[in-house]
Amino acid sequence: MDFKHEIIALLKPATKLSEEELSPLVASPPDPKLGDYAFPCFKLGKNAKEEADKLKAKLKLPKFIEKVEVSGPYLNFFLSKTFLVEQTLSAIRQERKKYGAGTEKKSIVVEFCSPNTNKPLHLGHVRNMALGDALSRILAFRGNKVHPVEIINDRGVHICKSMLAYERWGNSQKPDKKTDHFVGDFYVLFATKAKEDEHLEQEAQEILIKWEHGDKKVLALWKKMNKWVVDGFRQTYTKFGVKFEKEYFESDFYTKGKDIAYDGLEKGFFVKDETGAIVAPLDDFGLGKKVIVRGDGTAVYITQDLHLAELRYQEFKCDQQIYVVASEQNLHFKQLFKLMELFQRPYAKNLYHLNYGLVNLPTGRMKSREGTVVDADDIMEEMFGLAEKEIRARYTELSEAEIKKRAHDIGISALRFYMLRVDAIKEMIFNPQESISFEGETGPYVQYTHARACSIIRKAAEKASAKISLKVDFSKLKEKEELAVVKLLYEFPEAVSKAAELYKPHIITSHLLLLAQRFNEFYHAQQVISDDKELMKARLLLVDGVRQVLANGLGLLGITALEEM
Ligand code: ARG
Q1: Spatial separation of the C-alpha atoms in residues 524 and 521, rounded to whole Å
Q2: Which residue has the least CA distance to atom 3 on ligand 1?
Q3: Is residue 145 located within the same domain as residue 235?
Q4: Rounded to the nearest whole angstrom, what is the distance from the C-alpha of residue 260 to the centroid of ligand 1?
Q5: Domain range holding 47?
Q6: pLDDT digits over 478-522, tens only?
Q7: Closest-lying ligand 1 atom to the alpha carbon of residue 329
Q8: Whose CA is nearest to atom 8 of ligand 1?
Q9: Is 510 helix (H, G, I), strand (E, B) or coil?
Q10: Do residue 388 and residue 529 come from a single domain?
Q11: What does the pLDDT average to over 539-565?
Q12: Which residues are near ligand 1 (CB < 6 Å)?
């Protein structure tokens, strides 16, 4: 039940104001002593206080409102606590996995991860995947048809560098490690050698030209090495728990982008600069000059995007396309979206760049071979190791298989939650040790709270044969800790809808943390299993509501809700 909506419905006939006028006025007051909702009466007449009194006398209160009080120019509404408890707990129990879901029906493409095929995924990709995957799940939970996709940038000078290094110094060796790491090593080798030999950059560019001209030898090597990298990516995706409905490969359609460029040149959208490159003059929009095709005829990064947006629009009949890409590329996407607008593409207004800030490790930590970033695989292994240590310290009687499984679920939870709890646009430090802690603002803490709720329910069944049922006396739940928990349960659907509307998964992490904290306060203050059977039944239903909402919320973040921990 949407109380705000109901209060508006109540006020409509009494105030003669429209829904649109009332909606922004009815709000939760900052101080809970002033009730659950307040309505300022300024619009009703000169003397707002008098109007508030008149309004109070006029209203016939429905069951869900306990009382209304005038406070200055405001009319304050106090919800019936028992009614709120009953409504909320019944809704959760009836809707279960669907509690918080919506009925939106848009088709939305969410593009995320989208790596280049010269090296393995790194820490930044982990933040990207956490965001893209959570956003996809949230939007799908809201009822939308979500298409998670990625574009693999498998052509360009970056891969030519790895190819050149492999040809020159690789001795036709087969991979002796995870295949994407194997290729990445040659990319690093190229960078080292290029410091001493300035011709190498030029040679890589020549390979690119050969590639664009379909040189057989170059293509064969390119195929082999790209396969190694993409196979490696896919293993990492599986480990992290992301799936794509479709993978696009830049090499399949980059020439279509070139056609758009030549066409734009003919029509006068683009110009040629002194190097012969095709350029989009976007100075009038404060977006500079954007090279679309190089002077030597080779494609650049944006060439693909000119076609890709169109392709996906046709393929998915989508209402919206979201690009999850680091904020370093803000300008790129501003330029791209502006071009789409200038080309009068019907979807130009429905393109959204979800940008996110850099992730670093705490200072003093060892960096990867390349000296700049940490590999995604390495950080995941580290998390599994930390989780395993934590589990072994707590339990002695678990099987090895069970330890490994839990270590995986807890490690991924730590990683994802820590990445998601910060607003995406902010830079952040990923602290592995802190993220794995069972206390504090972490994924394992929320998982642990969920496991605690499950354990209370199990014990109640064992010790008191108590079963969860909706046939309870809801008025039994009136302690302030209980009501605080119910309020957060009630607000969960609103948090989900806000997270979807603003593309901000951290709204969910914040809500879950708060719920976990309030629930733990309740657990420490109140006894669930007790001799008062009616009270026990009511509290058990509350515990089950918390269990369900934590599970639903964790699911939206791609985290497994463990029943035991
Ligand atoms: N592969 C690019 C990179 O690693 C990101 C691709 C983003 N997506 C796009 N449609 N441009 O920087």
Answers
A1: 5
A2: 115
A3: yes
A4: 19
A5: 3-79
A6: 999 999 999 999 999 999 999 999 999 999 999 999 999 999 999
A7: 12
A8: 114
A9: helix
A10: yes
A11: 97
A12: 111, 114-116, 151, 153, 305, 308, 323, 325
CATH code for position 51 = 3.30.1360.70
**Residue 105 domain-assigned (yes or no):** no
Domain boundary among 312, 334, 360: 360
10 Å CB burial of residue 282 (0-12, 13-18, 19+) is: middle
From the CA of 152, give the closest atom in ligand 1: 1
Residues 164 and 220 in one domain: yes
pLDDT over threshold 70, residue 73:
yes
Question: How many A from CA of 249 to the centre of ligand 1?
Answer: 11
pTM: 0.93
* 42 shares its domain with 173: no
Neighbouring residues of 99: CB distance < 8 A, sequence distance ≥ 6: 91, 92, 492, 493, 548, 549, 552
| Domain match, 407 and 487 both | yes
Phi (first) and psi of residue 451, to 5 degrees: -60, -35
412 and 267, same structural domain?
A: no
What gap in Å lies between CA 240 and CA 122, rounded to an integer?
13
pLDDT digits (tens, 9 = 90+) for 371-386: 557 899 999 999 999 9
What CATH number does the domain containing 432 carry?
1.10.730.10
Confidence of residue 365 (pLDDT cuts 50, 70, 90): low
Residue nearest atom 5 of ligand 1, based on CA coordinates: 114
